[in-house]
Amino acid sequence: MMCIFYDSHFMLNVMTEQPQRATSVSLCWRQSRLKPADKRRVSPQQEPMKDSSVPSCPQRAQPAGKRRNLEFEPLSTTALILEDRPSNLPAKSTEETQRHKLEYEEMVAGAKRRELKEAQRKKRQMKERHRQEDSISNAMVTWNTEILPHWDSMCGTRRVRELWWQGLPPSVRGRVWSLAIGNELNITPELYEIFLSRAKEKWRSYSETSSVNDSESDGGASLADRESSLDLIKLDISRTFPSLFIFQKGGPYHDLLHSVLGAYTCYRPDIGYVQGMSFIAAVLILNLEEAEAFITFANLLNKPCQMAFFRVDHELMLKYFAAFEIFFEENLPRLFSHFQTNSLTPDLYLIDWIFTLYSKSLPLDVACRVWDVFCRDGEESLFRTGLGILRLYEDVLLQMDFIHIAQFLTRLPEDLQSHTLFNAMASTHMISRNRRWAQVFSALMKDGNKEADKNTSPALRS
């Protein structure tokens, strides 16, 4: 019995002493690793409980004047360069200590310079933002009080065109677009409601019979019928401005966009739904009421250039490409030659730009500026915008091959600024041999296919 009692007592002492030793070692290690700045940041609740049974860690005396009254206390490991080495390592020499002090001071000075530079940048940004807000506010007053009430007599004046080029205030943008595009089709809000009700009925019957049609269909349905289907519209809506999260399922504009696109497929069954329409409709919905957005959407797609592309009129599209390349060669001869060398035809990048009016390729705010000028100048501005993009990135594109050029132009940089693009567009001259865009295009139409055949794209031939 005494032996058992002695063994148990001995094991208990061993078990109680081991955690104390571990705690002592752990505390000593943590305290030796803390910098003075770290110790000040430890809250009372985080301080370890002092135990008289735990031996305290030996503290080294701090050299006089070391790290005192520092104006800049970094939150990183920058100041570790000033620390003495652990006692088990050779101490720093005086020269090394002085060198480390100079290095630390240079790091602190560099950090301060960066902070000052960042503060100055933010100050400039804020100043520019205030200037833009004042400019937009003044322009909004001008548009609302002087221009819009007298639209017919004012819209073509030089002053209004200059204001237009500078960008429309967001509060009047939708109304100006609507007036500029017009309503040649004489669509009324009541007519929109009629086609919307037809679309809803069509979708109901489609959902009821989709399983039967899927099993019986032999693939003979027309292209318009296939592309006006609910499935394709739903799929395209989900991919429309996905970063905004407002047109996707459950978003505030999902049903609205669905309604406008569905009504249009019933209004123009000969065209149906074509991929890319959702981006145009979405931009209009962001700036106009539902019925007005539909009216503007239908009239916009009825313009000759948009009709040629959405009907996939190959012959007419080739003439647009031929006209574009005439101005491309005159404005950017080096890049034009580089594209020719790499067999890069306009359809590889222009189709996507024209189909969505740049709303998919450019940042939304920049795309809206492009739309402003499109409503002012018509189809010419679309190709001028394309030349502006090519001019802006000419030096980059000259270093790329076919694959990289196509990828770059499909997905333009997200940091593209409107003022840089419009400066490039302003430097682009839409005059060829004393002929403007409309005259060049008209001449190509009269000449038939001779000019277009020279620029026939393999993609369009297929």
From TrEMBL:
Name the GO cellular-component terms: cytoplasmic vesicle; vacuole
Q: Which PROSITE patterns does this one have?
A: TBC_RABGAP
Kindly state which keywords UniProt assigns to this record, in alphabetical order: Coiled coil
Instruction: Please give the coiled-coil regions recorded for this protein.
Output: 109-136
According to the UniProt entry, its GO molecular function terms are: GTPase activator activity; small GTPase binding
Q: Which InterPro entries match?
A: Rab-GAP-TBC_dom, Rab-GAP_TBC_sf, Rab_GAP_TBC_domain
Q: Superkingdom of this entry's organism?
A: Eukaryota
GO biological process terms held by the UniProt record = vesicle-mediated transport
Q: Where is this region: Disordered?
A: 35-70
Which Pfam families does the entry mention? Answer: RabGAP-TBC
Which intervals hold domain Rab-GAP TBC?
A: 167-378
Q: What is this protein called?
A: TBC1 domain family member 12
Q: Which organism is it from?
A: Oreochromis niloticus (Nile tilapia)
Question: Which gene name belongs to this protein?
Answer: LOC109194243
